[in-house]
Design goal:
By secondary structure, the chain is mainly β. The chain has a single domain (about 1-65), classed as SH3 type barrels (Roll). About 0% of the residues lie in helices and about 45% in strands. A 6-stranded mixed beta sheet has the order 1-6-2-3-4-5, with no helix packed on it. The radius of gyration is 11 Å and the shape is globular.
C-alpha cells in the first residue's frame, strides 16, 4: 500500500484512488462512524461509500493520495 492511510482523510478534501487499474477522484463529503466515508466522484458527480472501491481488496497498484489544488 502506498500513499495515504484511510485514517488521515478529511471532509472537504479531494483525493485520488488507484486500485486494480481503476482511477477515482473524489471529495470526502461526510465521515461515517463505521470507518467509512461518503464521497462524491469529481468526474461523474455520483455519490457512494469509499469502502465500495476497496470491497475486493487492494491491488498491487493501490495508491491513495490527496489532490493538490495549487
Amino acid at each position: 500500500m502506498a500513499g495515504l492511510s484511510f485514517d488521515v482523510l478529511r471532509a472537504g478534501k479531494k483525493y485520488r484512488l488507484i486500485n486494480f487499474g481503476e482511477r477515482h477522484e473524489f471529495i470526502i463529503e461526510n465521515i461515517l462512524g463505521n470507518g467509512d466515508f461518503k464521497v462524491k466522484d469529481l468526474l461523474t458527480l455520483e455519490r457512494y461509500h469509499l469502502k465500495e472501491l476497496v470491497r475486493y481488496g487492494q491491488g498491487k497498484d493501490f495508491i491513495l493520495e490527496e489532490i493538490d489544488e495549487r
